[in-house]
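Lab notebook, entry 587. We have the chain sequence and a SMILES string for adenosine-5'-triphosphate, and the next step in the workflow is to get a structural model of the bound complex before anyone spends time on docking refinements. Request logged below.

Task: model protein plus adenosine-5'-triphosphate, output structure tokens.
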Amino acid sequence: METDLRLESSLWIGNKRYRAVLTGWHFNWTEVDKKNRNKKTISVPVAEVVGVEEGRVEILPHKSVEDSDKDFTVCYVKRSSSGGSYGLLWRLGRTQFSCPSRVLRDQWIKHLRTALKTHSPLRPHRLLVFINPFGGKRKGRQIYHSLVAPLFELAGISAHVTVTDRANQARDYLLKKDLTGFDGVVCVGGDGMFSEILHGLIGRTQQEAGLCENDPSVTLQPCPLHIGIIPAGSTDCVCYATVGVIDPVTSALHIIIGDSQPLDVCSVHHASALVRYSVSLLGYGFYGDVLAESEKHRWMGPLRYDYSGTMMYLSNRSYAGIVQYLPADPLLSSPRDKTRCLSGCSVCSRSTERLFPHSADSASMCSSHFSQLSCDSEDEWVSIKGQFRCVSLTCMSSSCPKSPLGLSPSAHLADGTGDLIVVWDTHPLGFLKFLYRHTNTQDQFDLPFVEVHRVKAFRFFLPSDKEEEGYEEIGSLSGTVDKEERVCSVETVSRTGSQQYLVDREVQREKPNEQKTASSFLCGLCCSKAPAVSVWNCDGEILPFTDILCRVHGQLVRLYARGIEDGAAMHDFSETEKSERSRILHK
Ligand SMILES: Nc1ncnc2c1ncn2[C@@H]1O[C@H](COP(=O)(O)OP(=O)(O)OP(=O)(O)O)[C@@H](O)[C@H]1O
Ligand SMILES: CCCCCCCCCCCCC/C=C/[C@@H](O)[C@H](CO)NC(C)=O
Ligand SMILES: [Ca+2]
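Result returned:
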């Protein structure tokens, strides 16, 4: 294949002569100039070529072609440092080449297009696009038509576009309509819009496979269609955590070149029924309260989260609960191992083999493994009972602009596990420290009232007395006394975990009185009545149930993305840029 596609000749860019070479995987050109000793070769991976066109093509403000039978134009992905974010911005690079003859020009076009087909088999030809006109700052339509549609047109992608009139329209379309001929689905919006697409595609795939989504022990069928996200929401966490930047052009280019990033999905069940799927945040306590409060202030736009976050922090709430989890294999990875899941992540690649083994008896292996969810093997479940500020599960880092390293910086996008973060009740300044560490590179897990576990499944329920209580008056001050008595305990302990939890319990016992003064002060600020029960925030949706069972389904969907690129390894950057990026990425 390599030799068939190879082509080498002189080409001109303007009045300068270049030696151009197409190997199987790369298209390179180097200026031929005897005086120029530092010859710089520009090398573009064939997989990152957006298109090859006859003539001299201009793209902005609109595509125009100056016809000439000896010229051709190559459009490709060009990277630039993104300033604030830790991913790389992608832009459209364009170079116009002139050939000595038409025959050579046609040969270049033919070879480049063939190489493209060979090396990027997942490039989409037909896409379904759903635009939420009300997401984020309400700029979805504008973002799509001005920044994305021209790129899709350039790449020859045909897009079937729907601007939604109502919530769940995109989900219902995917559940019911004919999807034949589409390669992927693109959502223009935020995490809520992504979640609609996720539910539609997973539901449709299971329907067609005849699988029951309600049963957590069923191994679900991975979705055949890819999902693309054009960020136009408020948090855009899924986009940020899978691409590294919130930038519509970067995301459009990942879609065009057919990048493919598998993603773990957690199914959430209540009383033998599926409630929802989650990829980023399943959070009880603080994150649930922030979401519930923010829904009352939707008119504020993205600012509603800052306002509600402040209000809920000042409310100083904590909740009783029982958390149980099925630990993942600690030999494979750990949420405290200080690694990052970057593009080409080896932990995720190894997981692909583990999750989808080629052996004939793979299906039976998977289902027997998850019989643990139907409780016949309770011995591996670890159980914690206590009073918590928040309990969160995230299947990926859940990084977002507010928290560039995310809820769990070492979590993996596609390893078949989620990170369970348990924050015990603590004094307000301690909790503030925990929250603040999400905004910088300090370790938010290195606090005595925080624990994190890598898990395959997780259950949460209220202690029996709480179930009937519903809303009761427990202001923080009176709560302080209660909390002291309601000391948390580890009821069932795994073979390895007991010592650690007992240590945590001792530390926890100290807390409530420690900062009574600060607690009273903050309490006086705003809370007289606090609910005894919180709600679950499931990727930005409030769940109608408190008692839940969750299972992580490894690599259930695929996104048009490639994970965060390690810019420190990119040769386009200066040494200063590389070391700054390396500092952020590797903490
Ligand atoms: N036409 C519409 N009218 C009302 N709601 C819609 C419409 N289309 C989609 N939605 C719903 O709007 C919700 C929020 O949308 P979206 O996620 O795009 O923006 P956001 O909430 O601002 O961002 P984020 O989820 O990132 O915080 C989604 O749950 C989606 O179901
Ligand atoms: C003193 C500074 C306090 C800063 C607190 C920063 C904590 C940030 C953690 C953000 C995690 C966001 C995870 C993503 C969740 C999304 O699924 C969801 C839907 O968009 N977003 C929210 C806000 O619930
Ligand atoms: Ca994961």
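Notes for the group: The radius of gyration is 26 Å. Worth checking against the assay data. Confidence is low (pLDDT under 50) at residues 360-369, 470-527.
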